[in-house]
Amino acid sequence: MGTLCFLAHWLWAVTTSVDFSLAQLINVIILLSSGGRNGDGVSGDKYVVIGIHGGILFLHALINSLPISYLSLFGQLAAAWNIVGVFVLMILIPCVATERASAKFVFTHFNTDNGDGVNNKVYIFVLGLLMSQYTITGYDASAHMTEETKNADTNGPKGIISSIVISIIVGWGYILGITFAVTNIPYLLDETNDAGGYAIAEIFYLAFKSRYGSGVGGIICLGVVGVAIFFCGMSSVTSNSRMAYAFSRDGAMPFSSFWHKVNKHEVPVNAVWLSALVSFCMALTSLGSLVAFNAMVSIATIGLYIAYALPIFLRVTLARKSFVAGPFNLGRYGVLIGWISVLWVATITVLFSLPVAYPITIETLNYTPVAVGGLLLITVLAWILRARHWFKGPITNINE
């Protein structure tokens, strides 16, 4: 139960961060479409961004309320869009750019002039791992959808593995294509540039503007990215709703009977709208403190990985002999890979708790240890004091 509670909380935070980043991107597209910051372009304030965020979540909730057959079509469209879009962008952007970085710059340069006081190359590399870990999160969506998947005992694990492999290959190519179009990192991060410091948007915009005198092509490319992020947020709401549904089915949520209801198409609509509402409420913290909001969503990555590692740890320790493997398993390598996974998560938990800027102030302090540790402590105490007396584990709803 503790793992489920921990996982559910951070899944909602991931949805919040994905849709909020899309809202910010739309805000930047509006800015660039009206001439950019250097051309008196107009962008919305934080209330406009939160309004866009709410609209995106509303659309995601509507889509996820459709029958599963329609949702499956959206999922297939999302997969095709991501793969085709990434290949187009990774080739188009460096080809259009009039200035390209050298291979030496792309593969060996470390930006030590980043304005946050971090100059050690090893330390910069370690901090950079956070984004790669964030990018690969969410592969457990296949597990959340197993109750609606044919031959789930084999197709579920295959979906997890294939999503990781595809993300690594396609993502690596995309990053290479974009970084070859980067020549002036400080300018990309400068909030006075056309895109207001939104680096990827500035790369796309400059690539087309430098060659054609207009950044319209770059704005269209940003639209391609925006649609991909939209599909990502849609899938994230799907995962959230299924997690909330499974959790309430086992009686482990307040008002479980309400969140566990499904409509005539067997879609947990109440859980879908709950997920959208919780994610929107989380985003409201950005109105009071953007630092607090960024801290909340950034630690979602490490929170998710801890939730992944806990059952693996129990599998390779307490349940090593009693665990019954399913039809899709790693055989004799399962325990070894399990330990590698646990040790890796333990390592990144420490690394991602390190300061990301110096000198350390209230605004630059890394709140990961406090937030993750606090939630983990609350979860453990809730289990020890109450939940272990009534929670009996997942409820079986099928016959052997």
Automatic annotation (TrEMBL):
It is a multi-pass membrane protein. One of its GO terms (molecular function) is transmembrane transporter activity. The chain crosses the membrane at residues 47-66, 78-102, 160-182, 212-233, 271-293, 299-318, 330-354, 366-385. GO terms for cellular component: membrane. InterPro entries: AA/rel_permease1 (IPR002293). This is Amino acid permease/ SLC12A domain-containing protein. Keywords: Membrane, Signal, Transmembrane, Transmembrane helix, Transport. The lineage of its organism: Eukaryota, Viridiplantae, Streptophyta, Embryophyta, Tracheophyta. It holds the Pfam family AA_permease_2. Its main location: membrane. Residues 1-23 form the signal peptide. It is found in: Membrane. Coiled coil: none annotated.
